[in-house]
């Protein structure tokens, strides 16, 4: 049996992916893997018993990736699972930035008496807005969310300009060729009535939008941050709002200072919070976790290489080790000493870490621990697992 520990609200549909015959959920003091959303894993200790952490969602800045990698803990996310939810919220926020719908509703609800319609017609002009049609929007980051935002806003008749110097081939294909791309962030900022950010929080992206970038924006522009706090320098934004340089800031990452400012609209980290996105993310995370725990195959990892080798032999050895020369030689020498014949093998690396998967014929279960211990004597080996093929193992 393996135990999955969860943090945050994880959709039942995702948990249902774990068959009760082989998994328990939140039952063990020493779980085998974690299934989380925004839980701050920098402040949540986890030990080497944790083989993997699956983040149902996109951002992984809540997970100490270097520590996890050094411990041999594979971290996954669920690319694109909540991108439509974020896109739809961005459309809503753009509309709210253009038309004072919320104050207008609050006003309308307070109206009373027999002449409500008279008061309505007399007062509604206080709530006149503007239209999105023909306005320009700069989309910073053209990944799963940004590419969808670019398409949706183009469909609304906005003039879209994108910026993503690191765009993946897959996302570049998804992006309409009609959407022009800026060479520099400055070029995007200078041309946009609205600027929306859809990039991960990394050291490099800390305060990507600061005082200098805000100065490059159009006077009266609207800024949206539905990526992460820390990507936008909130103090610089508040100064720019007070000075009238930008007109509104809409963010999913509130602070007391932001919430106290009338030109700021704060939403409570709602981007990925729809029923559909929660189910998508939980299912995808659970499936990815199961694949890794049961077969050792890796996809959608943010710290380990992808590996997809059909599990056909009775036994599979998986080894996480440092990416240094002659590892495969040293590993196979040990296996040869046990007279073990290799059916299939794959070795992949990603930066400092490497992953070797070896398929072979059945050996007695009693030998597992001895072989595992011997392989662990190689100093660069971090973790060894021996997986039984549930179909072929005798
Ligand atoms: N508010 C919410 O609830 C949600 C927030 N997010 C945030 O949005 C981020 C993006 O999500 P996805 O689009 O799904 O991720 P993604 O990985 O598909 O796309 C991110 C894109 O940003 C680009 N990028 C990175 N640094 C950049 C920079 N300095 N300038 C321009 N482009 C840059 C990358 O090349 C990539 O194409 C996540 O990392 C997460 O922090 C995502 C989902 C929900
Ligand atoms: O996917 C992301 O990066 C998000 O920010 C969504 O976070 P959540 O799963 O709603 O806590």
Automatic annotation (TrEMBL):
Pathway: Amino-acid biosynthesis; L-serine biosynthesis; L-serine from 3-phospho-D-glycerate: step 1/3. Its EC number is 1.1.1.399, 1.1.1.95. Keywords: NAD, Oxidoreductase. Residues 316-389 form the ACT domain. The keyword NAD applies. It catalyses: (R)-2-hydroxyglutarate + NAD(+) = 2-oxoglutarate + NADH + H(+); (2R)-3-phosphoglycerate + NAD(+) = 3-phosphooxypyruvate + NADH + H(+). PANTHER family: FORMATE DEHYDROGENASE 1, HYDROXYPYRUVATE REDUCTASE. SUPFAM superfamilies: ACT-like (SSF55021), Formate/glycerate dehydrogenase catalytic domain-like (SSF52283), NAD(P)-binding Rossmann-fold domains (SSF51735). Transmembrane segments: none annotated. PROSITE patterns: ACT, D_2_HYDROXYACID_DH_1, D_2_HYDROXYACID_DH_2, D_2_HYDROXYACID_DH_3. This is D-3-phosphoglycerate dehydrogenase. Belongs to the D-isomer specific 2-hydroxyacid dehydrogenase family. It comes from Ligilactobacillus ubinensis. GO terms for molecular function: NAD binding; phosphoglycerate dehydrogenase activity. The keyword NAD applies. Gene3D superfamilies: 3.30.70.260, NAD(P)-binding Rossmann-like Domain. Catalyzes the reversible oxidation of 3-phospho-D-glycerate to 3-phosphonooxypyruvate, the first step of the phosphorylated L-serine biosynthesis pathway. Also catalyzes the reversible oxidation of 2-hydroxyglutarate to 2-oxoglutarate.
